Amino acid sequence: MLASSLAGLPPTLLVLAGLDPLAAQGxxxxxxxxxxxxxxxxxxxxxxxxxxxxHAKLLRRAYDAIDDVAEALRANG
Length: 77
Description:
Elements: E1 12-17, H1 23-35, E2 40-45, H2 60-76
Parallel strand pairs: 1-2
């Protein structure tokens, strides 16, 4: 967010956990990327905590996020 420009960054997928204290910053980052012409998709996971993806053995929603990331990589890779 401190960069003078975000233009030219690659297409971006932002994974935002609903119970993440950084969720508002993620939303602001997505808005800034979009305003500078960067294709951005925001996937929100209500009820999930920061770092939920690293707990896939315990949290089913982590697998959903991993699948979304893999799909984005296939589409933009």
